[in-house]
Fold this sequence. Notes:
The strands form four sheets. The protein has a nine-stranded mixed β-sheet, sandwiched between helices. It is globular and about 65 Å long. Helix 1 (45-62) packs across helix 8, helix 3 packs across helix 4 (124-140) and helix 6 (185-195) packs antiparallel against helix 8 (252-268). The protein is α+β, with helices and mostly antiparallel strands. Strand 16 (319-325) and strand 17 (330-335) form a beta hairpin. The protein has helices spanning 45-62, 78-81, 108-116, 124-140, 147-159, 185-195, 211-226, 252-268; strands spanning 2-7, 18-25, 32-37, 69-73, 84-85, 88-89, 164-171, 173-174, 177-181, 199-203, 238-246, 288-289, 293-297, 302-306, 313-314, 319-325, 330-335, 340-345, 350-351, 356-362.
Amino acid sequence: MLRIDHPLLSSSLGSTKTLTSFHWGQPGSGPKVYIQASLHAEELPGMLVAHHLRALLENAEAADQIQGEIILVPVANPLGLAQRVDHRPMGRFDLDTSENFNRHYPDLAGAVGPLVRDALGADPTANIALVREAMGNYLGNWVLDTELQSLRHRLLTLAHDADFVLDLHCDCEGVLHFYTEEACWPQLEPLARFLGSEAILLAKNSGSGPFDECLSGAWWRLAEDFSGPGRPLPQGCCSTTIELRGELDVSHALAEQDAQAIIDWLKHSQLLACKRAPTVPAFKCRPTPLAGSETLKATAPGLVVFAAEVGQTLQIGDLVAEVIDPIANQTQRVLAGVDGVFYARIRDRYITAGGELGKIAGAVAFRTGELLGA
């Protein structure tokens, strides 16, 4: 194992933050997998999964099982991890810019398209290498002027040439759920099954430039724009955001289970050598479109009392929550507008008017435009 500490651009005199990555295997010897945790820094289950995954990867290295390259970044956001306001963690948004740490990543397809358009040839492997080289050159020439840009740049530099990217997050309260782009789903389906995902949400460009889609989205965009007969361009990166239940689901039992699921997927994908690949488990759910996910909102402020538990399958009209105004002695009943799994909900039990309460994974797309929340 190789440990690399990457100093980030400092925003203030006398202070420097560092991003740390752990590396197994040899670059170029096989597929590359990049795994990071807690880009939203208050979402800690992934950090504990990374802790247990590191031990399992060290065992795999000792047994000479690693076939390719694996990079693990257990603390993907040292900037957000240090942010606290009134003793509460504030790791989702950068306090200097108010930007979400998992939004506004660059359009890599737009950046490298003009550089590769006329150079694509008949060899798909050579075309993948060409695009990755162009991405690396673009990132190498990126002029950085903020601490946040420095973090985004370093994460992309580590991940841009990976075959697979796993971004470990969690919701406020929720079941394990899985986001990926449509172009990535065939390759990542076994991973969702090993993890026991209870909701799987597919999109083609969910909007807002999240980390995972910055990487995978570049490939299908370039393929749509430039590939064709005699110019094949495969999906060179398959990425996913994995929501590891809720913020309070930080336990060794769950983390060990999730780390082992990732190891089983690595073995199934022949990224770790084994005598017999693990059997892919049955689906716990079927994929649904992210555009079919209903976000439930409160029309008035009040106390929140949930009637539905996360993981519960709801029908249209089922009571999900009550929002109670004890001054006016009024209760707003929040009902399911779609059939599907109630896969995430807020942790706070007071809501202001217009606030989000939870999400249901509907099977029929009905939304357009930006599909992700703030």
